[in-house]
Amino acid sequence: MSTYDTAREQYAALGVDTEVALDRLSKIPVSIHCWQGDDVGGFESSDGELGSGLAVTGNYPGKARTPDELRQDLEKALSLIPGHHRLNLHAIYLESDTPVERDAIETRHFQGWIDWCKANKLGLDFNPSCFSHPKADDGFTLSSADDGIRQFWIDHCKASRAIANDMGEQLGSKAVTNIWVPDGYKDTPADRMAPRQRLKASLDEILSSPTPHNIDAVESKLFGIGSEAFVVGSHEFYMGYAMEKQIALCLDAGHFHPTEVISEKISSCLLYVPELLLHVSRGVRWDSDHVVTLNDELLAITREIVANKIEDRVHVGLDFFDASINRVAAWTIGVRNTLRGLLIGLLEPTDKLRAAELDGDYTTRLALQEEAKTFPIGAVWDEFCKRNDSPVGPAWLDEIGTYERDVLSNRS
Ligand SMILES: C[C@H](O)[C@H](O)[C@@H](O)C(=O)CO
Ligand SMILES: [Mn+2]
Fold first, then answer.
1. Which of 7, 16, 181, 258 has the fewest C-beta atoms under 10 angstroms from its C-beta?
2. What is the CA angle 117-127-270, rounded to 5?
3. What is the CATH classification number for the domain harbouring 182?
4. Does 156 qualify as catalytic in the annotation?
5. Which ligand is nearest to the CA of 51?
């Protein structure tokens, strides 16, 4: 009898069908963020200076310098990650021989990515890039008091939505377009209302045209570097906006107060907005973007999705960037952990826990929650990897070592 068969029997005794869990897991895509591969640099110019309150620390060798290198690295990561997933692309990852201003981007600048996604059976999500640009240097984009600057970013976001719509149409799978802007003040504002009125008006203009192959999402943030005192796009702002417009709300795990968790927000938000986009990340002190580990909050997030059977309304995306470790390994660790978290949720005896809860039998609820933690989760995860032709256990790390030696170390 294989270790998986033994595990299957143990779970069956708990009322959990591991085959159902494996089948459901295979249908949940994770949107893999391109920006872990090159420290959010993009391909607009060779310097690709990061700004607008975003920061990447570390200097690990082998960063992707071109779209082809980034795709090569993504292919390596995807070969180490079980399941069928999506790519999440920022607008600064365009391909063009000549400079293209952000308000002039077109689908043709992303056709290489679309074709690559088609060839690799990946869905594609998109983001306007309202940061790291001279017109974002004074800290404001869509809420700028300068009409010219505000219009520039409105036009960039409009162009991004149209491109995402084409991506969704070409790939036969709706693209999620997420709008995040860094707008805010380092110190106490004299006027909190006017920037929010301007951001609302800008968003209204951006979202005014129909995009049937695109899903709109908006992302809040508590603070950024240089916007410590005030962020225009706060949680309340976007929660209200997403409710009013009935669009998706993006919850980034690193964008809230340190003791506030997005796992707790999912069930409430979904009573009022049709869909959620998650930016699965890990906040550590001031940084919101550490590589996702299999910690309590990841388990709580993934458990909420599968226990409530809301995987069709929750788009799972990743958002971290670490330049101090091998970047292909960072993707692999983060996506494998997210999938592992989802699987652990799927292996929970949810029906039994909920029945105990309704009976007021909190003893059974707590006892089963704790017993489930040491059930043979690893055997079921290994089976998922095997069935998806993905490395079992830490074997993938050897492949990273070979890739680093043969490919990454040749990049100067
Ligand atoms: C690249 C950024 O991380 C991303 O656009 C945004 O989602 C964010 O989280 C900014 O802090
Ligand atoms: Mn984010």
1. 258
2. 100
3. 3.20.20.150
4. no
5. 1
